[in-house]
Specification:
Layout: E1 3-4, H1 13-25, E2 30-34, E3 37-38, E4 41-42, E5 45-49, E6 53-59, E7 67-72, E8 75-78, H2 88-107, E9 113-118, H3 124-130, E10 141-142, H4 144-148, H5 150-164, H6 174-184, H7 190-193, E11 199-203, H8 210-221, E12 225-230, H9 233-249, E13 253-255, E14 258-260, E15 275-278, E16 281-285, H10 289-292, E17 297-300, H11 306-317, H12 323-329, E18 336-341, H13 347-358, H14 370-373, E19 374-378, H15 381-402, H16 406-415, E20 418-421, H17 422-432, E21 444-446, H18 450-470, H19 482-498, H20 521-542, E22 545-547, H21 551-560, E23 573-576, H22 584-597, E24 600-605, H23 621-625, E25 632-637, E26 639-644, H24 645-660, H25 668-671, E27 674-677, E28 688-693, H26 695-699, H27 702-719, E29 733-738, H28 741-751, E30 760-761, H29 771-784, H30 789-797, H31 815-834, H32 838-847, H33 850-861, H34 863-867, H35 871-894, H36 899-912, E31 929-934, H37 935-938, E32 943-948, E33 962-968, E34 971-978, E35 981-984, H38 990-1009, E36 1012-1021, H39 1029-1033
Parallel strand pairs: 1-2, 6-9, 9-10, 11-12, 12-16, 18-24, 18-25, 19-20, 19-23, 21-22, 23-24, 26-27, 28-36, 29-31, 29-32, 30-31, 32-36
Antiparallel strand pairs: 2-5, 3-4, 5-6, 7-8, 11-17, 13-14, 15-16, 33-34, 34-35
């Protein structure tokens, strides 16, 4: 029932009818004022609706028979009055603007104020017949049927809000809501407005009463997070039973940590080892609880005193309660927060819990508009999508629990909230402030280098020609071959941009003296590299474009410019995930934005997982951010929810050793990962497997045979798990982790010799090298050349045609006989699957949209079944066949597609190579996936088993081929490594770089190991040279 602030006046029947309708049919968060004065005029009704706005309703208690004629909106002739009546719509609007002006001038707020006309005794049909439809639009008019039907009444008001709501209005929450009510009320009735807490941590040192249980359940279903400690398991079971009963009664089913509504299935929430945990609820049985806490305690909103913190710390050590996450979630909103989060410690969960907390009024964070006041930044689109999905799900869960409509508003806000990659965030800021930079707001982003390469080649060729004329033997002084040298030079500028240095503005002294073996490098930098960047910059400017690698330079220019428009942003909190991967230019831009916008940071990262040094990430990121100052509070997460605790103990020995050698930033007392999981199906000695091999084993491919056998064995073990169907996708995945794409290619080549082993890969550019693309190309080639025996023979032997063909029959046949025989075979197959002969199929292709016919052939011939009987392989085939079709469809948007154009495109992509990556299978089906990927691409993921078959590369030496660049104190050091020979300028310190390489390789190994859930397997070569991953792994 709505809260009616004034008594009903029974003088006017129409107003009486509307009063009763509002009181009976609107929810209790609606406050209604009746016959109040505003600027000397009296409105009929004004509703204040939290999270929506205000609604003025002007009531006219006329009947259709009272309307004589509507001459115009301001001249309504009735048989009730001697003079015509003026527009009730304009009357309502005058009250609306009076309210708007009052709130703008008196309270400096701009709430949404809506207006409607109500005819409680006139139907919509009569309203049209009388001509009242020229007075007010039907969408903004309440009729007799709306007043009589509660659903129609509420829906009509909601429709008006949807049509009227705009971003320029202040949201009807917090201070805005209070001000609107205070204007009409002497003192707001706080009974309804008593702020419920965000969370309650309850300790019952002795018995818990029935009343206590009822209070806990009631608080939980009102949206208050509950953490409960009791002294006996029966109390936990009673709590769970009461909550389950209420879930069942409301048709809510708990699946994992989320809710399903309108469920017919009853809940069976497990209590394991005296504990239970699900969305917003944790209950733990603590033996001898009274020894820790002599009396009952209730802590609200995480406001823990010193004595209480000691008690909770003791409890946390004797239970699975995560005190670290609790303290992070409830930390003061006045400080910047840095969380050092180890692998698998639930950092995403902590970030989402933190947002839920600051969005609650009791946090005093004063978040009124989540979509504009909070931003979350990540490094990948996948991470951003996952974060948004999980955050939305959290507020969906709140709504299911409480039925409170404010959470629907939160969900809507999160949908439009800035949850994106750092580059996407930078793009929006640059666009907001683009004009002072000399670019248009509609600038395009260029990620490719084609145009730059053309410019580079022009300058490079001019330079080579000039030098060759000056020094005929010049080409002999270039290390390696010119093609490889050119590729390294092309990377030079991009590496500098990643380090936050604008090479276009560089002076000669920045690069120092070149190595004596490459005395011409200073000339190449000035005459080729810098000139290329300057000319390319002019090209981008002329085309209103920005290069993706220069985003951070532009972002810094934006935020440091005096014209930076801080009024465009209302951020109060910015969350940054994987902070160890940020570079100096990003840090600089973030700090400048904070200085101008005055928001707080919440950053999460782990220096042990900093593996993007090539993108400019440094080990000083947290210090450069100022995290070691008084403005920041630091927290740690080291309770691991991913990996078997026995495997973590084995890792701990290695990590401790690596820390003692200064290879990773690891101190055992604070960085050791503490496990909470044990897989009882595996014995301790099965968790880590090592395979040692010799040079001879390597020559005879015994290493790959062993790898395939280990994959078979583990795949069989996972499939034999009695709970296999309930395992997560990650728990049904085996990962082969390697360092490079070249190593992936080697493993995939070997896997082709083992038909029962199917390995997925996302290595660069493999889409047009795998079977689905090749099969489609063979089909289009045959259709384009329907009378050519060579193409028809190819088609018959492909997966497109599931037919046994006695090839020997072709021996001795003439070309015409071969053609007739092959067409006969194709007739037989396509008549069976499509009821068409080969010539009829060719005609259909020529007379219908090509993609439609190709799809029809594909669905009928089912090439994935010919390809393999293995379910995983079939799904991989279908997924990537669809991806090729997606590419062709996109091509069709820009040019007219024909059979010949498709056939030509496929041949070019297959024969010339393409960088298009195939699509991994991610449906979570009931089979075991085997993936082969680099450690870098595995970051953020987890797998049942991690296998590292290649651990022999040296990690304490310069790379054999490549370009390394340092930028320290305004000086650029560079080193070209070609065929094992390193050539560096005076500012490049080789020993320091080797130390950095060794440390980064150690961190990469840390990332690889911590992906495993249950098992880790590694291969080590006897007598491998130098320091290697294999040597380090001996410490396990």
């Amino acid at each position: 029932m709505a809260k009616m602030m004034d008594l009903k006046d029974e003088t006017y029947a129409g107003e009486q009818r509307v009063y009763e309708c509002i009181e009976s049919n609107l929810p209790d968060e609606v406050v209604c004022y009746y016959n109040r004065e505003i600027n000397g005029k009296q409105f009929d009704f004004c509703l204040v609706i939290e999270h929506m706005g205000m609604l003025v309703i002007e009531v006219k208690g006329w009947k259709a028979s009272n309307i004589v004629k509507v001459h115009n909106p301001d001249c309504i002739e009735t048989n009730l009055y001697s003079e015509p009546v003026k527009s009730p719509k304009k009357q309502a609007r005058s009250y609306k603007f009076a309210l708007v002006n009052t709130f703008n001038n008196k309270y400096s707020i701009n709430p949404l104020v809506m207006d409607m006309v109500c005819y409680p005794f006139i139907s919509e049909y009569e309203y049209k017949q009388c001509g009242l439809n020229i007075v007010s639009e039907p969408e903004f008019t309440l009729f007799k049927e709306n007043i009589e039907d509660p659903m129609q009444f509420a829906k009509k008001i909601a429709t008006v809000w949807q049509k009227s709501n705009q971003a320029l209005f202040d949201k009807m929450v917090g201070n805005v809501y209070d001000s609107c009510r205070k204007h009409f009320e002497v003192a707001i009735d706080k009974k309804k407005d008593i702020l419920s807490p965000y969370s309650e941590l309850r300790i019952y040192s002795e018995n818990i009463s029935i009343s206590d249980i009822e209070n806990i359940v009631a608080s939980y279903f009102s949206g208050v997070k509950q953490v409960v400690f009791v002294s006996n398991e029966d109390a936990v079971r009673q709590l769970i039973q009461n909550i389950s009963n209420k879930f069942d009664a409301e048709g809510v089913f708990l699946k994992g940590r989320n809710f399903i509504v309108n469920a017919s299935e009853n809940n069976n929430i497990p209590v394991k080892e005296g504990s239970a945990s699900f969305f917003n609820f944790e209950a733990y049985t603590i033996e001898n609880l009274k020894e820790f806490s002599p009396s009952n305690i209730i802590i609200k909103n995480g406001k823990v005193g010193l004595d209480e913190e000691k008690i909770i710390s003791h409890i946390a050590k004797n239970s699975k309660f995560n005190l670290q996450q609790y303290l992070i979630e409830h930390a003061s909103v006045e400080s910047n927060i840095v969380v050092k989060a180890g692998a698998g410690t639930g950092k995403t969960f902590s970030m989402i819990s933190r947002i839920c907390f600051i969005c609650h009024q009791s946090s005093n964070a004063n978040i009124l508009d989540v979509k504009n006041e909070i931003a979350m930044l990540t490094f990948t689109t996948e991470a951003a999508t996952n974060m948004k999905s999980r955050l939305k799900q959290a507020f969906i869960n709140y709504f299911v629990l409480t039925k409170n409509k404010k959470y629907l508003d939160m969900i809507s806000g999160i949908e439009n909230m800035r949850i994106s990659t750092i580059h996407s965030f930078s793009n929006s800021v640059i666009k907001d402030n683009s004009l002072p930079l000399g670019i248009g707001v509609d600038f395009s982003t260029v990620s490719g280098n084609y145009q730059k390469q053309k410019i580079f080649d022009r300058y490079f060729n001019e330079y080579l020609k000039r030098k060759n004329e000056e020094e005929p033997m010049f080409f002999g002084s270039i290390p390696g071959n010119i093609y490889d040298f050119r590729k390294l030079l092309l990377r030079f500028a991009d590496i500098m941009y990643n380090k936050g240095f604008d090479i276009k503005e560089a002076t000669e002294d920045v690069f120092g003296n070149p190595t004596p073996t490459m005395p011409y490098m200073k000339e190449i930098i000035n005459d080729v590299i810098i000139k290329t960047e300057q000319t390319y910059s002019e090209y981008l400017y002329e085309n209103n474009s920005v290069s993706l690698v220069e985003y951070m330079l532009y972002l810094n220019k934006c935020v440091n410019d005096d014209s930076f428009n801080k009024n465009l942003y209302n951020y109060k909190y910015i969350f940054i995930d994987e902070f160890q991967d940020v570079d100096d230019s990003q840090i600089s831009a973030f700090l400048e934005m904070q200085k101008k916008l005055d928001f707080k940071f919440f950053i999460v990262g782990d220096l042990k997982q900093s593996i993007y040094r090539f993108r400019g990430a440094t080990m000083d990121a947290f210090n450069k951010m100022g995290c070691n100052t008084a403005q920041w509070k630091e927290y740690t997460l080291n309770i691991n929810y991913r990996t078997d605790m026995r495997l973590l103990d084995a890792y701990g020995k290695l990590f401790n050793y690596m820390g003692s050698q200064k290879l990773i930033p690891y101190v055992d007392s604070k960085d050791r990962l503490i496990g909470v999981k044990v897989n009882s199906a595996l014995a301790s000695d099965e968790l880590v497997e090592k395979y040692t091999y010799s040079q001879e084993d390597e020559r005879e491919n015994a290493v790959y045979t062993t790898l395939m056998n280990k994959l078979r064995k583990r795949k069989t073990e996972i499939e034999a798990d009695p709970l296999f169907s309930k395992l997560s996708k990650a728990e049904k995945t085996i990962a082969i982790l390697v360092r490079t794409n070249y190593q992936i290619a080697m493993i995939l080549r070997q896997a082709k010799n083992h038909e029962d082993i199917f390995i997925e890969s996302d290595s660069n550019g493999d889409l047009y090298r795998i079977q689905p693309s090749i099969d489609l190309c063979k089909l289009t080639a045959a259709l384009s050349n329907p009378r050519n025996p060579v193409y028809l023979f190819d088609l018959l032997l492909s997966n497109n045609v599931n037919l046994n063909i006695p090839v020997e029959k072709l021996v001795g046949m003439s070309e015409n006989e071969k053609l007739m025989y092959l067409v006969e075979c194709l007739d037989r197959f396509y008549q069976n699957v499509l009821n068409l002969t080969w010539s009829e199929l060719v005609f259909e292709v020529q007379s219908n949209p090509i993609l439609m016919v190709l799809r029809k052939i594909y669905e009928a011939s089912k090439p994935w079944k010919t390809y393999s009987s293995d379910e995983a392989k079939q799904l991989y085939y279908r997924t990537n066949y669809d991806l090729v079709f997606e590419d062709l469809s996109k091509e069709g948007k820009y040019s007219y597609l024909t059979l010949d154009s498709i056939n030509e495109s496929l041949h070019i992509l297959i024969n010339m190579g393409s960088e298009r990556v195939s699509r991994s299978v991610t449906d979570g089906g009931d089979y075991v996936r085997i993936v082969c990927t680099t450690v870098h691409k595995s970051k953020g993921l987890e797998y049942d088993t991690v296998i590292m078959p290649i651990t022999t590369h040296q990690i304490d030496t310069m790379r054999r081929n490549g370009l390394e660049i340092t930028y320290v104190d305004g000086k650029v050091g560079y080193c070209f490594s070609i065929d094992g020979e390193a050539m560096a300028n005076e500012y490049f310190y080789t020993n320091d770089e080797i130390a950095e390489i060794e440390m980064e390789e150690s961190r990469i190994l840390y990332v690889a190991l911590t992906r495993a859930i249950n098992k880790f397997c590694w291969f080590n070569k006897i007598n491998s040279k130098g320091n290697t991953w294999g040597n380090l792994l001996e410490e396990i």
